[in-house]
Amino acid sequence: GLIPVDATFTPVVRVNYKVEATRVGRMTNLDRLILEVWADGTIEPLLAVRSAAKILVSYFLQIYEPKAVSTEGVAVTPAISDEILKMTIEELDLPTRITNAFKNGGIETVGQLLGTAKKELLKIKNLGVKSIASVEEKLREKGVALSV
Predict the structure, then answer these.
(1) Could you give the CA distance from residue 146 to residue 116 in angstroms, rounded to a whole number?
(2) Angle at Cα 34 formed by Cα 29 and Cα 37, nearest 5°?
(3) What digits encode the pLDDT tens for the residues 56-111?
(4) Cβ neighbours for 139, distance < 8 A, ≥ 6 positions apart
(5) Residue 114 falls within a domain, yes or no?
(6) Are 116 and 141 spatial neighbours (Cβ–Cβ below 8 Å)?
């Protein structure tokens, strides 16, 4: 749901509301909402309230009856701690050649490494399939994995 808002388009000029206790039959624990709506003439106040109510109902329906989301093809990744994301590449105890290749490629932290796809990593000079495999092994020890 998207409600486009334009700062110059505000057809509702003013709104007052009051909540009063009321009863229906013997039930006395009810409330009554009284709305006073003023509009600039581009929209009728009743239409503005109905439109707002329709939008609100559609939002509540999304909560009450959520649509099923297909998880097919969606990888669910566990939350990664900030400690691991902020860890430097040197702290992974990788061979110096791989560490230097990452630095030259602009990757300084594990967070940056995890945010880079394998295909992009393979484009970095001095990194090949074997290097990536050893990086994946070190990351597996930390409980994380590279993105595809």
Answers:
(1) 8
(2) 160
(3) 999 899 888 887 766 665 555 567 778 888 889 998 889 999 999 999 989 999 88
(4) 92, 110, 113, 114, 145, 146
(5) yes
(6) no
Q: Which domain holds residue 56?
A: 12-64
**What local confidence, expressed as pLDDT, does residue 54 receive?**
93
Q: Which residue has the tokens 């999304």?
A: 62
Tokens of 46: 């009743």
* CATH assignment at residue 86: 1.10.150.20
90 in a domain, yes or no? Answer: yes
In this prediction, residue 8 has a pLDDT band, given cuts at 50, 70 and 90, of low
Instruction: For the full predicted model, state whether its pTM sits above 0.70.
Output: no
Could you tell me if 56 and 90 lie in one domain? no
